[in-house]
Amino acid sequence: MRTTWLICGLLAVSLLQISLLWLFSVPLGVPGEWVWPRLNPIVPVVGMIWPALLMGGLLTGYVFWNAGQMESATRRTRCLLLLGLWILGSGWILALIASTPGIAGLNRIPFVLYYTRSSGYFTQAEENRQQVAAFLEGYQARIADSSNPENHLHLGTHPPGLTLSLIGMLKACESIPGLTTLLTVTQPEGVRDSVITIQEMEAGSGRAVRLRDVEAAVLWGASLLTVLFAAGACFPLYLLARRSVPASAAWWGAAFWLLVPAIAVFVPKSDVLFAGVSMGAQCLWLLALDRNSLVTGWLTGLVMCVALTLSLAFAPVALMLLLQGIVTAVLLRTGTDGKSLLQERWKPATGAMAALGCWLGLAGLLGKMNLLEIWLQNLRNHAAFYDHNARTYGAWLLEIPVELGCSLGAPVALMALSGVIALLRKPDARSFELLIPVGVWTCLWLSGKNMGEAARLWVFLMPYLLWCATRTIQQWQSRPSGVSLLAAAFLLQMTVCVATAIRVDGFGFSELMK
User: Fold this and answer.
1) Where are the domains of the chain?
2) Is 446 exposed, middle or buried (0-12, 13-18, 19+ CB in 10 A)?
3) Are 163 and 128 a contacting pair, CB within 8 Å?
4) If you placed Cys at 106, which of 44, 82, 190, 308 could pair as Cys (CB 3.0 to 4.6 Å)?
5) Can you name the residues that pair with 35 across neighbouring β-strands?
6) pLDDT, position 45
7) Is the pTM higher than 0.90?
8) With the C-alpha atoms ordered 459, 264, 236, 234, is the resulting torsion angle positive or negative?
9) Count of CB atoms within 10 A of residue 509's CB?
10) Exposure string (b/e) for 204-239, b if CB count within 10 Å is 16 or more?
11) How far apart are CA 383 and CA 380, in angstroms?
């Protein structure tokens, strides 16, 4: 009977989210400060979403079929099954985007990355690819003026890593014609149409056409990498969940991650890509702590240095890892013969600090950059955003949890909340590994450092909530009707994901579609 009530509860929260998005005009944000617009479908829904229905059916069948095999499968088989989940999950995300109407579907990819309205990193990369050294050397001076809108919006609040990544892709496509050809022939029709539209607009304006085959290939290649990294978070998420729950529960958690609506809504923004990076760093760090490994600690530090060169959004992750290391050392010290913390767990921290030193040194020697100063200026620029854009603390304090829940999908949000409550009620030896991220995230929310666009800006932290949800999944599996409950939750989450992804406009295209 209790299982029936749980299914009814999942159905109720799912219908509530879908109703809020489709049947009511409730603002998706705080009016006058930031509101996500809604898309208006221009064709019948069933005919519009057939790619999502097809790939969703394949993904569902794959997840259900293999869920029962995970406990008895060998390590090699599990790796292969996760690889299949990653490939199918990436296809599902692309199919869901393709099911979004008009320019907001796959057609959006070139527009979002090419024009400075959405970010500006590609434009910056295209303008500086022939003078990389001068670009890096002058980067700190470029972002020094916090009153410049370019600096307190996108470009100035991030280190140069995203621009450097795109420069690298541009140079790779220039040097390897076969790569450009491969990326060109694999472009979906909607992407090609948008590329042609941009080219025609440039030619019609009298300016030289800057979007050529190489540039168009990079736009599509960068988007593919974004999807692959986002979906790829299922690998470390599975490994992290396996630290405390059975393989089948970890499998379900990894599968549910692919149904988080925020992923499909915000591709090709880099925020989506960051989810795979943050989970990879987290997985490496706990492995380093388990093994007291200098090398794995160094690798974790290297991943985090790369991440922090892409975006300072990873600063909370760095804090989480630091606190996990401290707590691990304290716990292991209990009952020892009086050894110091440094003697007991010095290797991971030393490796991570060595990676940081090497990275800062390379930035100074090769890029002529003071990366620490750049990070500090990025923080100042981020703070300046609120000097130019009004935000009401109390309103966002209440709105952000709602936005976070909808961007996760109501069923997953409910499962994650249940998992957090279970951790607080009955903590175990590994509870701190999850409670520290939850605590840091809560402090970030209460601090008001992020007021607006939480659905996009917090995608890189969302896998932590899926990790929490695996505790709930484990509890559900122990029920007599656990399989039915998980099946209902999965199908409802997929429905919510589709309904959200084709309704919420993450890039302001709805104004162009009127």
Assistant:
1) 2-511
2) exposed
3) yes
4) 190
5) 29
6) 59
7) yes
8) positive
9) 20
10) eeeeeeebeebbbbbbbbbbbbbbbbbbbbbbbbbb
11) 5
Under 8 Å CB-to-CB from 9, ≥6 apart: which residues?
Answer: 414
Q: Give buried/exposed letters for 274-302 (b at 16+ CB in 10 A, else e).
A: bbbbbbbbbbbbbbbbeeebbebbbbbbb
Q: Would you call 346 helix, strand, or coil by DSSP?
A: coil
Alpha-carbon Rg for the chain, nearest whole angstrom, is: 23
Q: At what angle do helices 247-257 and 482-501 cross, to 10 degrees?
A: 20
- Would you state the structure tokens that stand for residue 332, as one six-digit string? 């292991």
For every residue of 115-131, which 3-state class applies, written as one string?
CCCCCCHHHHHHHHCCC
Amino acid making up residue 183: L
Which amino acid is it at 342? L
Q: Give yes or no for a contact between 173 and 183, defined as CB atoms under 8 angstroms apart.
A: yes
Q: Can you tell me which residue has the tokens 């110091």?
A: 340
Q: pLDDT tens, 136-193?
A: 888 888 888 777 777 667 777 889 999 999 999 999 999 999 999 999 999 999 899 9
From residue 419, give the alpha-carbon distance in Å to each of 64, 132, 422, 469.
Answer: 22, 47, 5, 5
Kindly give, in sequence order, each residue whose CB lies less than 8 Å from that of residue 87, ignoring residues fewer than 6 positions away.
none
| Contact partners, residue 164, CB within 8 Å, separation at least 6 | 125, 132, 136, 309
- 250 and 397 in contact (C-beta within 8 Å)? no
192: its two tokens? 């090609």
SS3 342: helix
Could you report the per-residue pLDDT of 41-99, keeping only the tens digit for each?
Answer: 655 555 678 888 899 999 999 999 999 888 888 899 999 999 999 999 999 999 999 99
Residue 206: φ, ψ to 5° = 90, -5
pLDDT (tens digit per residue) in 439-486: 999 999 998 888 878 899 999 999 999 999 999 999 988 888 878 889
- Provide the β-strand partners of residue 36: 28
d(CA 167, CA 95): 28
* DSSP-assigned beta bridge partners for residue 28: 36
SS (H, E, C) 226-241: HHHHHHHCHHHHHHHH
- Inter-residue contact 77 to 225 (CB < 8 Å): no
